Amino acid sequence: MKIETLRWFNNRLEMIDQRILPAAFEYLSYYTAASVAEGIRSMVVRGAPAIGVAAAYGVALEALKLSQGEQAKFDEGMEEGFKVLAASRPTAVNLFWALQRMRRVWESVADQSPQQIAQRLLAEAQEIHAEDIRINKAMGAHGAALLQDGARVLTHCNAGALATAGWGTALGVFRSAVEAGKKISVIADETRPFLQGARLTAWEMVQENIPVTLITDNMAGYMMAQGEVDAVVVGTDRVAANGDVANKIGTYMVAVLARRHNIPFYVACPLSTIDLNIASGKDIPIEERSADEVKGFRDTHWAAEGVQIRNPSFDVTPAELVTGLITEKGVVLQPDAAKLRALFA
Ligand code: MRU
User: Fold this and answer.
1) What CATH number does the domain located at 6-136 have?
2) Residues 66-75: contacts with CB within 8 Å, 24+ apart?
3) Residue bearing the CA closest to ligand 1, atom 10
4) Is 299 a catalytic residue?
């Protein structure tokens, strides 16, 4: 089954509602920048590259809507659309990367009619969409070469087709390895509190018939100590100029454990996730989400009422713990500032 996380259909954006997977599979429709921003904020769509693609379509939708109205209101409406999208989530840099790319395209055709601008922006969103799948496949090929036949690979969160336009970053590496004839198996961390591992990664791997074992996050150390993990591959939301990696909360813990057990720790990372404007991980904005996610799940609450709760949604793994960054341009072993700069040269 091909997973189409987002699709352009009948002049609207449709996105799989990832909040209800795997119990139900449903598309929701989007017509404006504000509704796409709400879809990002509420996690209908999540995962750094998918958020970027959604935001690009959000800009195009807004332009299409505004191009039906008064020409004088077009610019102001567009600025509002950019603003609401930029405020949807703070950590994944792909959101800001996509908005900047859409803004440049808008500027390049600003002298044209709103209808023409809207069509050009839609074409750009569709290009970002298609490009993301191509990039994932290129990363997949580079990453698959790092995995031995029979490798048991642990991953954290969901960096799959659902987190991208399709194929996936970390899970794309697994798909490419299987396509290349390697018999790999996946260990999926559950990924408290939002359960992206249990709900999304496990589901994706089951759909593909790739052997997958689900564990709770606190079992990773035991599995490594037992010699049951050969490699770790995760995705990322933002990589700083020095190679520090922000990813789903709990990734840092996995990286420390991997180092302790001499297990390679790889990060699948498209160039759009590298933020050369941020010197090190300590400056990456970390989203703090609702206490309700930690208190329980959906309507069930298990924590004592009145308890204080923290819910940082991401953490930062220092570059020194990263064995390699898997990019569409190849694998950067032991990433550092000079090697990352060279990627963009
Ligand atoms: O909060 P989420 O589900 O958006 O977080 C997603 C992650 O942390 C992924 O690992 C990351 O975006 C990489 S996706 C290819």
Assistant:
1) 1.20.120.420
2) 66/114, 66/118, 67/113, 67/114, 67/115, 67/117, 67/118, 71/113, 71/114, 74/114, 74/117
3) 235
4) no
